[in-house]
Amino acid sequence: MGGLFGGFVNAGIVAGAALALVPLVIHILNRRRHKPMRWAAMRFVQAAHKRTRRRVRMENWLLLLLRMSAIALLALVIARPFTGNDSPLAGITETRRDLVVILDGSASTGWREGVETVFERGVVRARELLRGLSGPRGDRALVVLAGGYPRTSPWATPEQATGLLDTFQPTEESLDLASALAEAIDAAERESSVGARGALEVRLLTDLQRRSFLPSQAADGKQPLSEALDRLKELGVRVLVEDISTAASQPQNLALASVQPSTRVLGPQMPADLRVEVRNFGPETKNGVRVALEVDGERRPAQIVDVPARGRAEAVFTVSFARAGEHTLVARVEDGDKLPLDNTRAHVISVPPPARVLLVDGAPGAVIDEDEVGYLRAVLEPPLDDGGWIGSAAPFEPRTIPPEDLGTAAGDPAAYDVIWLANVESLPAPEVDRLEAWVASGGALVVSLGDRVDAASWNARAWRADGTGLLPAEIGSRVAVRSRSDTWQRVKSFAVDHPALEFFADERFQPLLTEIPVYEFFATRLVPGAKALATLDDDASSALLIERAYDRGRVFLWTSTIDPAWTRLPQSPATLVPFVHELLRYARSSEAAPRNVPVGTALAAEVAAFPRAVTLVRPDGTKRTIDGEPQGLAGNRWKLPIVTGRDVEASGLYRIETEGAGSLAFALEIDPFEGDLDRLSLDELGGVHPALVAVRLEGSSKSSSDADAAPRRGELWRPIAALCLAFLVLESLWGAWIGRRRRVRA
């Protein structure tokens, strides 16, 4: 049977053919058992029986064979056997097609060619393929809209699949071809499980964007394209690839790649440079490109840039934000091209308010050189030449208190973003508990040590071996150099990519940190999860700056002093100023969900008050109430319900509005390289993978090579059903004839 049939659609029902033995079993069980008894007239009966026994036996066996064959054939009909073109039964099969149509719906298919886009051409071609199927014959279709993830319909009739095409819209995502092919792999594996290896027909309608077929590696844990194609090859399935674009191999296209500040925005009323990057993915230089920028809906004067072929250019806009908080940027290339989607790009920027810094002075002095936090105060609030102070534009708002005021209203942690404890001897247990709760809710604590620090008291109240305490390390013994005149420690290594120290990563500025002498410090033992951001060059590679995350907040430990008692750091303004500024800016930054994310990314956010009536405002101005309940967090913060799915599939500015907690802006951005329309040729496609087969079309008609490439699977259930019916008819006629003849003889 394996040589005649290629497999069965319902392979499990083939076992039903064994029911053909039921008539035989019934016949055997019903055979009469008798004991011979001789009597005089028996010899006449035996003589007559001998004359008819052979004919009766043949008639009964033929009747039994017809019944058994009918049952076996009925089981085969239900199992739906099929075969390929090489089978001797191929001439009597009925061809049935299972077609998977993968339609490229990535952002690049929005390229307009004349009056229609590449995507619209793909829809037309998909309809042509579906029209070639026959619903009455049993043909089925699986239609997949491929983008960042596959939108897949269930297996459907050709008519149903054609109706689904009318609901498809192009996405603004990059094509993840591997995930789209995974749908074909699932279908092929089901076919293979019933013996229909290689019988599935897979069509990929795409613009052949090079980056979709030649990705360097899979991202975000997704399956690499090569693995998906290898699996299809193992299953004997080829992907017939059709080029639905008529564009040149490298079409001319401009795209906005990014719009963002060139450096960190320090605060309101401080100038910031906003850079808008324009990329030219075409083979020709574009001169006189107009780039416009809107800040909070207010248009700024456009700038003109020249963009070299396959190159980039930047337009720089200098802006001062009047207030702290979020601001929206929308950049546009005003020279329209055939892919308008990537000519506009949005971005959300957060301008921080002045950081509220509480300086707890554990060793106050009469003059700045003797004051533990005097240097910090001078760095955070420097006097101007005219004797005044930086006003509302200052990035920091410092306040100094003695340790005993921590338990008062002046030392309430909730009123500050960062608290710096400088050479504080110890803290009462209630204050440690308050600080633990404050840091856990998102606060930032910096602890610098000194000669007044009682290490045993700090360890007893703020350190735990399992890491649940507030300190990022156990404070050990005090370490000092033998002689300050000829011996000191320096920074041996530091985390060059850490935001608090990246200023010193530049080779020009590294010596400002690595050459500062350190004469005394405390040895430490880090708790699990803590990280030494800077270490010294002593034999033990002792930690100088330690960080750890404490729930939603951060804790830093500086193992030396912040005044000149133990280190020359305060006496080097070129080191102290950027170190303190960058450390405090990083410390006060929150781990809030990003506001600028790729298209399709779920939107998550937190607010500082209970939100009511949460509403999503899409880029086109339409609104939708967000379902779900806010989730309470520490520090009287609330996590909003996550927005996902079709609500985040378009690029542009989004806004989540609430009653009682204000509104939040988000920018969803397309992949800037989606505008790189560099295309593979059909000849190059053959070298990508053997499972990809290029199909060359003339107009909208398939070529002969197209027809030859498509796999076919012929089913035999109709001929077998006819044969089963014939056997049933023969069985009925034969049984009636035997019964009539025997009655006449009787």
Any overview of this molecule?
By secondary structure, this protein is an alpha+beta fold. It has five domains: 7-90 and 718-745, no CATH class; 98-249 and 677-711, Rossmann fold (3-Layer(aba) Sandwich), CATH 3.40.50.410; 254-352, Immunoglobulins (Immunoglobulin-like, Sandwich), CATH 2.60.40.10; 355-588, Rossmann fold (3-Layer(aba) Sandwich); 596-669, Immunoglobulins (Immunoglobulin-like), CATH 2.60.40. It has an eight-stranded mixed sheet, sandwiched between helices. It is elongated.
Care to count the β-strands?
39
What separation lies between the terminal Cα atoms? 44 Å
CATH fold call of the largest domain: Rossmann fold
Largest sheet: 8 strands, mixed
The H-level CATH homologous superfamily of the largest domain, spelled out, is Class I glutamine amidotransferase (GATase) domain
CATH class of the largest domain: Alpha Beta
The tally of domains stands at 5
Architecture per CATH nomenclature, i.e. the level-2 architecture of the largest domain: 3-Layer(aba) Sandwich
- Overall 3D form: elongated
What is the overall number of helices? 15
Mean pLDDT: 84
| Low-pLDDT segments, ≥5 res | 385-392, 699-708
Radius of gyration based on Cα positions: 40 Å
What would you call the structural class? alpha+beta
